[in-house]
Amino acid sequence: MESQRKYPRTLSFEFFPPRSDEAAAKLKATRDRLAKLKPDFFSVTFGAGGTTRERTLETVVEIRANTGIEAAPHISCIGYPLKDIAATLAQYREAGIKRVVALRGDMPSGTVGYGELRYANELVEFIRKETGDLFHIEVACYPEFHPQAPSARQDLLSFKRKVEAGADGAITQYFYIPEAYYRFVDECEAMGLDLPIIPGIMPIISSSQLVRFSEGCGAEIPRWILRRLQDLGDDRVAIRKFGIEVTTDLCRRLLEAGAPGLHFYTMNQAEASEAIWRNLGLAG
Q1: What is the DSSP letter of 150?
Q2: In a domain, 262, yes or no
Q3: 2, part of any domain
Q4: 14 assigned to active site
């Protein structure tokens, strides 16, 4: 964990683009609440195969214009021609965007074939070739390993390729076992990788949502958390209170161990992330 202590603390929130006027109004309210906490940046996700490409750009531009806070669009390569990736990068450059999150992405439903790029390291290489050092590039990593990785070792090597391709930093998939993050960082250090690795944080606000998401991304939910959530049944207020306590403790342990920041997966909701932030004394 020693490599992480030298980096300045970076705190950020993630949104997904709204798909309706009602969702846009909700995101605006969330954005305005969280902007008051003065994060270093917001990020905005990108649908499978670029299905929310235009909404991602619109959301990022709106965030910057209305809050003055840096906003980072996600960009993926699966099922996405190189000319379209280049065009998207040109749009981001024209909009004054300086940070992007480069991901492999998921195949859109019904699509056959990967496109011209198959892996995130290839996307990072392409961004560097097209734009040089214009963008600060974040990539993803998986302390509990990607569910599609053939082995833990291969997953680490995949991450190494992204770093060597030109990544400036990494944001992890969410997790609830801090030792997984500590060990992952130690293994990266052993491979000579030296870049900030920011823990991704998923506030617990719904039992069913947590289980569904975790099954899809391979995040392990400790048995004691699952049992407590089962005991709470459908009591949403109690679940949220418990979730805030659990996640606050996780974040505190990570920061005390030397993690160089936190990245909150907000699900376009402010309350839980805001409460954890304040519990940690991060609010200015």
Answers
A1: S
A2: yes
A3: no
A4: yes
